[in-house]
Amino acid sequence: MISTIGEILGSLPVKERVKEYGLWKVWDKLAGEAVSRHCQPDRLKDGILFLKVDSPVWMQQLQFLKSLILEKVNGYMKENAVKDVRFQIGKLRQTRKGKFRPWKEVSLPQEVVLRLDNELSSLRDPELRDIIKKVRIKEAQVKAWRDQRQKGGSSSSSPA
């Protein structure tokens, strides 16, 4: 006799769909920022994870990461539910609101923020001061991010 919800779900064909949904929710963390921007899970069927990839170049790159992706996915699922990974070129679903802005993750040194505070201290209107400060911080983050990229130190996470 079936007595728990887990056993009921386990006995129904929806078990794989529940696992699949869980994988979709954590894909960005699991795959890493760089990979998740170019690759998303499409479906899981008969132990094969089908991933949509936005370009042939990324599809080739992901072939080299296939075993690592398989290991991470099975590690997340706590079992060897995925036996193979297959890549397909296709349009990715937009998962983030608006455009991806990697510069937002750049942290500015405290002295930069203090300098901005000092420069804006003469403004009497606190609301205007806050707005200008936010704009100047974004400007400094974009500049720092561009400088990092030019030096070869990307701010994005490592693939898978």
How many strand segments?
3
Oligomer: single chain
The residue-averaged pLDDT reads 80
Write down the Rg.
22 Å
How would you describe what is shown here?
Helix content is 54%, strand content 12%. By secondary structure, the chain is mainly alpha-helical. The protein has two domains: 5-89, DnaA, N-terminal domain (GMP Synthetase, Chain A, domain 3), CATH 3.30.300.180; 102-151. A three-stranded mixed beta sheet has the order 1-2-3. The protein is elongated and about 65 Å long.
Keywords:
160 residues, mainly alpha, GMP Synthetase, Chain A, domain 3, 2 domains, 3-stranded mixed sheet, 7 helices, 54% helix, elongated, disordered C terminus
What does the secondary structure layout of this molecule look like, with pairings?
Blueprint: H1 5-11, H2 15-31, H3 33-36, E1 39-45, E2 48-53, H4 56-64, H5 66-77, E3 84-89, H6 110-120, H7 126-151
Helix pairs in contact: 2-5, 6-7
Quick summary:
The protein has seven helices and three strands, in the order H-H-H-E-E-H-H-E-H-H. The chain is mainly alpha-helical.
